[in-house]
Amino acid sequence: MSERAASERHVPVMRDRCLELLRPGLDAARAAGETPVVVDATLGMGGHAEALLAVEDDVVVLGLDRDPQALQLAGERLSAYGDRLRGVRTVYDRVDEVAAENLPAGRGLAGVLFDLGVSSLQLDEAERGFAYSYDAPLDMRMDGGEDSEDETAAELLARVSEAELRTILREWGEEKFAGRIARSLVARRADRPFATTADLAAVVDAAVPAAAKRTGGHPAKRTFQALRIAVNRELDVLADAVPRAMDALADGGRLVVLSYHSLEDRIVKRAISARTTSSAPVGLPVELEEHKPTFRAVTRGAETPDDAERAANPRAASAKLRSAEKIRAVRSTT
Ligand SMILES: C[S@@+](CC[C@H](N)C(=O)[O-])C[C@H]1O[C@@H](n2cnc3c(N)ncnc32)[C@H](O)[C@@H]1O
């Protein structure tokens, strides 16, 4: 593992704006005489969590991550905060269960933050197999593989049909040359299975027309992204997790999500819009209580980082930030 301190490896994206968006949720908990409890669903190296713990001195953060290495590093880094940071190794679609395990019965969260995707730690650790720029076994499992239920990228590449591979590359990698790349990968694996990142990167490179390589970064970038999303079932898990996070919020609690991929952002947008619009059937003369929106959108559309942040932090370039506030807990009508 590299010697660089975790704090140097990762700059939290839109940090101050995330804190600003979370703050009214913390104030709502305080006004109710409660300690504000926030779930950082993607603890990573703890950049956002650290900022929150430092600025809001009564907040408790439940820091979730499926990657044990991230939890260990963040735990060490934030040890000064004692039990105000509780690390939980889990996939974030258990956000509501983790909240219930850590809150008194009937209480909700003051906030939930998601900062999606891989961390710089994961990209930097060559042996994890996320990066086309290092040669390593083709793994890409965010949970590090130990007692993992997910298959590795190498196993996935050996199993899927050419048509499935083409869809994965086109949809999750937004790869223009999905058809050509899928054909080349399938032809090559008939000969010898893929085992390393360099091997995969070289075959993708050869499949992409030379003229297309002049722009858009490394030709294998989108293929690696697509396989990482597939290996970790990132979009399915996210689609399940966001509504669960919304369920776990207290009245006045806030959801804040940073996404980096248009499909992630679409999932978040839809989940927010499902709760911020009336569910009353068209034509009903009055809106019944149970049809009223239970959230209000806090951001107008998606916010993006300013030019200075985009220039300073390449990871911020594609960031989209959305937030919503719970305005009314769903009450039983019986
Ligand atoms: C971009 S990093 C978060 C960085 C963090 N906000 C910081 O400032 O250090 C995303 C983290 O989320 C974790 N992660 C991604 N998908 C996850 C999932 N479905 N469940 C739990 N953790 C996940 C990754 O392992 C990674 O450590």
TrEMBL record:
Region (Disordered): 296-334
Reactions catalysed: cytidine(1402) in 16S rRNA + S-adenosyl-L-methionine = N(4)-methylcytidine(1402) in 16S rRNA + S-adenosyl-L-homocysteine + H(+)
Binding-site list for S-adenosyl-L-methionine: G46, G47, H48, D65, Y92, D115, Q122
A Pfam family hit: Methyltransf_5
Top EC class, one word: transferase
Keywords: Cytoplasm, Methyltransferase, rRNA processing, S-adenosyl-L-methionine, Transferase
Classification via InterPro entries: RsmH, SAM-dep_MeTrfase_MraW_recog, SAM-dependent_MTases_sf
E.C. number(s) listed in UniProt: 2.1.1.199
Record-linked SUPFAM superfamilies: Putative methyltransferase TM0872, insert domain, S-adenosyl-L-methionine-dependent methyltransferases
Gene3D superfamilies: Putative methyltransferase TM0872, insert domain, Vaccinia Virus protein VP39
Subcellular location: Cytoplasm
Domain of life: Bacteria
NCBIfam families the UniProt entry points to: 16S rRNA (cytosine(1402)-N(4))-methyltransferase RsmH
Family: Belongs to the methyltransferase superfamily. RsmH family.
Functional summary from the UniProt entry: Specifically methylates the N4 position of cytidine in position 1402 (C1402) of 16S rRNA.
Protein name: Ribosomal RNA small subunit methyltransferase H
Native source organism of the sequence: Nesterenkonia halobia
Classification of source organism: Bacteria, Bacillati, Actinomycetota, Actinomycetes, Micrococcales
Gene name for this UniProt entry: rsmH
